[in-house]
Amino acid sequence: MSVTEVQFQASGAEAGQASGAPVEGRSQWQLTWRRLRSDKVSMIALIVVVLMIVLAIIAPVFAAITHHPVDAAYPIQGENAAGNPVGPFTNGFWLGTDSTGRDLLVRILYGARISLFVGVVSTFIAAFLGVTIGLMAGYFGGIIDTLLARFTDAVLAFPYVVLALALAEAFGPSLTIIMILITFFSWAGIARIVRGQTLSIREKEYIEAARSLGAGPFRIMFLDILPNLLAPVLVVATLYIPQAIVFEATLSFLGLGIQPPTPSWGNMLADAQNFYQVAWWYLAFPAIFLLITTLAFNLLGDGIRDAMDPRTERLVAARRMRRRRDKRRTALLDGQTALQNEQEA
Amino acid sequence: MAIVGYIVRRILTGIVVVWLVASIAFFLFFSRPVTTVARELAGRAATPQVINEVITNLGLNQPIMTQYWHFLDNLVHGNLGYSYFTQESVDTMLKQDLPPTVSLVIGGVILWLIVGLAVGIISATRARSFFDRFSNVAVLIGLSMPVFVIGELLISVVFYPLYSHGFTWINTGYSGITSGVGSFFGHMLLPWITLAAVQAAVYTRLSRGQLLDTLGEDYIRTARAKGLPERRVVFRHAVRAALTPVVSQLGVDIGQLLGGVVVVEVVFGLGGIGQVSVQAVEQDNLPVIIGFVIIAALFVVVSNIVVDLVYATLDPRVRIT
Amino acid sequence: MAPSTDDNVLVRVENLVKYFPVKAGGFVRHTVGNVHAVDDVSLVIERGKTLGLVGETGSGKSTLARCVAGLIPVTSGKVIFDGRDITKLSRGAMRPLRREVQMIFQDPYSSLNPRRRVGSIIGEPFAIHKTATGAERKRQVQELMERVGLNPEHYNRFPAEFSGGQRQRIGVARALALRPKLIICDEPVSALDVSIQAQVLNLLADLQQEYGLSYLFIAHDLEVVRHVSDKVAVMYLGRVGEAAPKEDLYTHPRHPYTVALLSAAPAADPDTAAARQRVILTGDVPSPITPPAGCRFHPRCPRAQEICGIQEPRLVPYKDTGGEAEPAGVAAAPWSAGADAHLAACHFPVADGESLAAAGTRELA
Description:
B: 321 residues; two-stranded antiparallel sheet; 2 strands; C: alpha/beta
């Protein structure tokens, strides 16, 4: 009797499931969000990030409340007898003043605007560029790939300081230059990851299926490959934002970026170097804000990566099961000893 | 024999890269209006007379391709130009400023590799222990801090309190090894820590991750099943496999290293070529910047070749390509 | 015996050759050899019929399938689909042709994009060729889902939520969307449990009846091929060893390789199993980069003689000559010698009732 002579009820056994309203599958994003929500550290990081963004946006509100506009210097209330900055909570300066008697808190918040703007926007543009270039390099292969990949590697290995110096010298330091620089150096990291992923996804059967259907290369790249890439790209982008922020701060610190009097955490910290002996707050507060912001983004990025990777879920589940089993075991033993004690008694 | 071909190819590529970088720098700067260029070459304080002098002496009025040719010619002969500002030739200047940079780089790299790998390996072998958790937190903080913040922190928290209480061994600025080994270390200790800190964090995380993955592989289980002592399993087998991605990462990081070097030199006032170049931007001192650009390119190329060779030694699969 | 007329021939493969270059490094990468994936294969697929293609891994059957589907360029030879040689077409010209030739893939787990919903996967052909949009597309997709035995309400689910057999049905629905003329099935049931295999095969048979589809059915499991095919071709190392109508092949295999394959398949009937002579082939499959001289099968063949290592046997209609002499006749592409011709490429084909080692020197256990 050949195998095919055994008749199964096709529809019954397999396709039959409780039919009711059309069921929507849970997408990858919904699952990730649920996992992320249960991770306390990541939630705190997310709240901090949102808080920073909000603070940056409402910075003018603080200027209004304290009546200290961002570039207004107060040589009398803002400086003590020796001409040095005053500390926190003196004379209506919540966090003290900087070297020329300006309100430190207001300047820090305005500095946050620049840092966050540069960080997020540059990374966003870089992600866009990186994904496009990575996709094309990975999908088309051949000479296009060789050219693009070599170019990407060259950019990745390039010392950014050198280019920063050169550009600052040639065109003068400015916000635009910083954004160009940061975007220029960030896209390469993203492109490299995208290219690697594309190379492996390209070999999958469903891509071959799409080609056999007659799909053109761009359709395949953006509709088939890209959705499978978004996860790693999102993780990388979230981790590139703090790098961009640090980058901007470093450049401004060196004098190659935002120039005073425009406040940037970098140039404030540069100035603060000269005053750390007499005004620790000038060094401490911008540094704390910078640190908290980058730390939050880093934690958030890690959290997103863990939330997207079911491997950690298995580890957590395994741990939970182990704990439960241990609890059960001790409960059992306790029960046994209690029984014994009863019997002996 | 294939390895000789490999080295030759890399050196040739390296020369091409350096040439490309120098050319780009040249065209970036010298394609601008003649007076701007002249002023930068002469220095900010130059009078119109000096500027005209510069234009004629350096032939800035000549067609750009002739200038380019002279530039390349000079370059090949090791002549990086002449800073009118300080009346010194650039290569002498840079040669003077090289020792602090070299000391910083060597010490920093050694420190970060040792710390990064050690902590990474220990964390991986004692996963989830207190040490591991503690180092994970430290790594995260280290990753989030910009180099200059670390530097400033160290200065204000370590150097200043010690110094103001009479403990002068730890100091800012540079003291050459020839003027006393003790003083050399005293000046270099904090800069080394600063440079190494962020990178150590990166490498700790990298090596820990790699080692954890490798330790989960089947051939490690086989080694253990064979009864090999754990230490041998870890060091002879796992670490070697785990190291290769670390080394390849090193190649990429060399470029980023230069950024850290510049920052540390500025923060601690070491006066190496990094700090000098930053000052050159402020002073509009063009030849120094071009000189720095070219030297940086050279450094990156050479160190990449070295790293690739080390990588090829570690991973026999790579050799011929 | 009338030859297959052009009327009922849908696909004619003529002398198809596909080599993959093997490159070596060094200073300049150059080609050091070729993988002879498909080496001069000719076949015919008739309208509304199924051609089964059997062979081991490395026999070139998957490569052949992709050449016929136009997915990879050929090294030489022709694939004539409905009168047109598709090997010469540009990508733009190929596009409308893609509506007529579709593929079903082997692995139900990787042939569907895990990040797309099922409705979008099945609806993609409509989107690519712009034949239906919006609500109309959804309607057609749901119709297809129903036709292949899926619940149309699962339109918005992800492939991960379906079983292997269901996923294969999704693949079938996708292939069926544009009512192609030819569906190439590349081991569509190899990855499924046996009971599910039956369902999918029955579905394919039903669809063939209903829509007049032609199939090129590739497999390595002989029993499966026997059930679905009208004609079967056996491939070995890039060449066709034997080609015949189904029952002919299974009851009177001529090529030693076919005999060995059939002997290895488990027979459900114990009597047949006992009567069958178990043939064990020695040696490994040789490398397709340097195929053996003469007949490609000769190193493993129990009946190989000297001539087998020197002269390559041509694919000719079988004539029972008593097992010693070379079969007569002009080399023929299946099935120009006649629709029911039984072709074999062997110097010493196995006659009825002959044991495998009869003409040969080696005795086997």
